[in-house]
Amino acid sequence: MQQQHQHTARRSASGTRRFLKRNVGIALAVTAAAAVLASAPSVSASTWTGHSSSGSVVTDVRTAATFDFAAGEIPENITANPDGSVTLSLLGSCAVCQRTHGPELMRISASGERTVLATGQVGEAISGNARGSDGTVYYALWAPGNADRNGVYKLLADGTPERVAALPADSGPNGLAVDPTGRTLYIADSLKGTVWSAPASGGPVTPWLTDTALAPVPTEALPIGANGLRFHNGALWISNFNKGTLLRVPVTPTGTAGPIHQIAGGLPNIDDLSFLTPFSDVVFAAQNGSSSNNGPDRVVVIYPNGTYKPVLTSADGLASPSATAVRGDRLYITDGGVPDPHDPKLQTARINFPALLAGAAH
Predict the structure, then answer these.
(1) What are the residue ranges spanned by the domains of the chain?
(2) What is the pTM of this model?
(3) Which residue, 149, 262, 295, 298, is most buried by CB atoms nearer than 10 A?
(4) Mind listing the pLDDT tens digit for each residue in 106-123?
(5) Enclosing H/E stretch for 324
(6) Which pairs with CB-CB distance under 8 Å and at least 24 residues apart come from 190-193?
(7) pLDDT digit string (tens) for 275-293?
(8) Contact (Cβ atoms closer than 8 angstroms) between residue 51 and residue 319
């Protein structure tokens, strides 16, 4: 999470209908690309690959929805849902702007209709959100200093929020993941260098992994460590915002944390991430440089061997990209719009699978 706290939007965007249509299935080309890209070995350090000679990894970049920065409508995290809708965490305020709005959790339908699912109080942030295998919506509420509200919530069948994981008042819940069985929640704590686990049905939290690799850098303008979090292919994938690293931690058969593997480094202000397909270890990650002026504003593709390259940059209008999501051959990007006068937005792009394959070969 690159910013903290503030309010969100209820108006519809005229272009959203076209860009949030359901993708039915994944083309054979996607499956073939995923199979090849997932087969490359992982290494502990990343290198710069430059641009692929076969062209851009993403094409057809469009704005799917716009938001009102002055009203605190600052998109943070995103989940692409099977019905063609997206679920957005919207910060009401941030660390580099003076706003006095509360955060919201919002769904934007395939037709562009906006529905506020949950709200927070001024001074809080709704950071990560996730969807369980049964469709349950979970979200992290960062309520600094308030042990009565800090933690993870789920939406009940009637839309009422219920806190299912209470976290200490001095913790910073951010990225959120649910295991494939839908039974266990994992929460990235950006302040304590910890990933917590908790029963998805509700119950006590447990420090699943605490390590210096997850810790923030205290001297940074925004001391944020573990940030983005995804459960993928039997492991938790974690980004460290300050240290600029992407980590993979296997989940052992007993549910404990295995050894930490650094997949990539040299990515300052790396925020949230997503995968090309459920079977591929190709990652799309957002680098949110504007939040602390400590890196570029861009989206990068990271290959399983640790190499990476930018696919969208500030030249494409990005200003504080914070999260990515993939559905079919579409990449979704949330852009917080920090600093002014940029407008926060949700963008989509078409994934160019031949260019991904060519990039993996370098």
Answers:
(1) 24-70+128-361
(2) 0.86
(3) 298
(4) 999 998 999 999 999 988
(5) strand 321-327
(6) 190/1, 190/216, 190/224, 190/225, 190/226, 190/227, 190/241, 191/216, 191/223, 191/224, 191/225, 192/225, 193/225, 193/226
(7) 999 999 999 999 998 877 7
(8) no
